[in-house]
Amino acid sequence: MNRILSQDEIDALLTSVSDGKSYDSAESDYQDSDTAVTLYDFKHPDRISKEQIRTMRTIHENFARLFATFLSTNMRALVDVNVISIDQVTYSEYTMSLSMPSSLYLLKMPDLDGKAVVEISPQFLLFVVDRLLGGTGETEIEVREITIIEQNIVQRLINTLISMLNEVWNQIYPLNAAFDSFETDPQFVQIARSSETIAIIFFEIKVRGAVFPMNIGLPYFVLEPILQKLSSQTFFMNVKKAGESERKLLEERIQATKIPLKAIFSDTLLTVNEFLGLKRGDLILLDKELDDELQIKVTDNLKFFGVPGRRGRKLAIRITRSASFEEILSHE
Description:
Blueprint: H1 7-18, H2 23-31, H3 50-75, E1 79-90, H4 91-97, E2 104-109, E3 114-120, H5 122-132, H6 148-169, E4 178-183, E5 197-207, E6 210-219, H7 220-223, H8 232-256, E7 261-264, H9 272-276, E8 294-298, E9 301-311, E10 314-322, H10 325-331
Antiparallel strand pairs: 1-5, 2-3, 2-4, 3-6, 5-6, 7-8, 8-9, 9-10
């Protein structure tokens, strides 16, 4: 498209010509500048954005905290679980990076039409078996395949892991993951094409000075239907909604919880000799009058005062007032 140059533009062109600069020299100056150039690897495209990766990291950090608490309770030892990184690689690269023997648990997810894989260090599983069977839990264990009996022993741990994974992902999308199968040879695990991108979440499990690796692999085609939900804004909105629903559920459970309620008529002191001499028909003098208020305790804590009576054929007590702070303090 033809355009008439202004006088200022003409003067600028004449000045650049008189200075001896050309397009080639300008391009050379640009190439010699400190502008950073990032290479793009077309063989390994990042199909999951950085924001989505950050959301996935937040989800699995929550999972790591839950799993660490479960392991510490059941192993009777302090266990720490941390998210190391989240990488995107091809499935062939992932399988080639796995050691032999491995402990690979395949998870089926019918709603997402695919499977995920959880790889746990065989040494850690053998440590778990030793602790569950009452052993000292030596962390220096020779690497070997875990037997069928050992697989059955750690199955409860795997089921809990899957349950916790479903729990943290419910804030974004219900995975409904379930145990599918167990393999020790990576070559027999084919959950995606060799060239398919897979997101790997790397964990480390620290216990008694030893560090064991664990990772969770999610193929891209499994994540693709829910990637749009992995934005930070959507995640925190879902967390808020989940928090409100959990609070309501917690309130309902608390309201339905049964607690012991005790009405204390009176306290008295007896010597051991007097107690041993008690027999049927003896009278014990109490320090209460008939019209005195009785203490009403909830789980052994003073909460109310009341008076005794009847309702129909049943004994009852009517609450007259709440215990004051001073009365509660003096009772304690």
